[in-house]
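Quick question about two entries, pasted in order.
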Amino acid sequence: MKASQLQNFRQAALQQTDEGGGDLPDLEEATDGPSFGDTLENAVEGVDEAQDVANEKVSAFVAGEEKDLHDVMISMNQARLQFELMNEVRSRGLEAYQKLMQTQI
């Protein structure tokens, strides 16, 4: 690609911006949702609740109050899968953080 073509693309982009077309989205509109910290906190609370439900069902089954073994096993597996997912997200986040810390400026 020649320099003149790049210059033409640049001028067209600047012209679109001046005319109001192709403006960047407003930062305030882009950040209206929950924060990253809130999302992580809700996810951890969901895993904790799933484990509590599984523990309650196991206790109820051992005490003879719960008769359906399938429900107990399903709730235990759901809690296990949610915990494994949370652990994997944590591991990936930690790896990303370590890579960022190793980058040279």
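Here is the second entry:
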Amino acid sequence: MEPRQKELVHRGRAARRATTAGLAVAALVLLAACAAGPNLGVDTSTISGAGPYGFWWGLWQGMILPITFIVSLFTDTVSVYEVHNTGNWYDVGYVLGISLVFGGPLGARRARH
């Protein structure tokens, strides 16, 4: 192989390495941007003065999620998740409520038959 060809092959490899490294860094930055941040509203009182929302409110708000989501597209006063919550217990209720609405384990079993 001629020296000129060797140089072109070397440049091509270096360009591929730089592109691969750039894509890896971009993927890491993208993944880091998706990381959840702290919820500063946990265990704080709501606007009405009541305590933070717990498991039962999470369950209810999970079940009404489809309607809440549609309404939230048209207004800024409705959100799909209450930030003034008790933390993990609210989250458990919320996910369970979503699961109940969208079929949960029973819906998955029906789909297999």
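Reply: The chain has a mean pLDDT of 80. The first helix runs from residue 3 to 33. Hope that helps.
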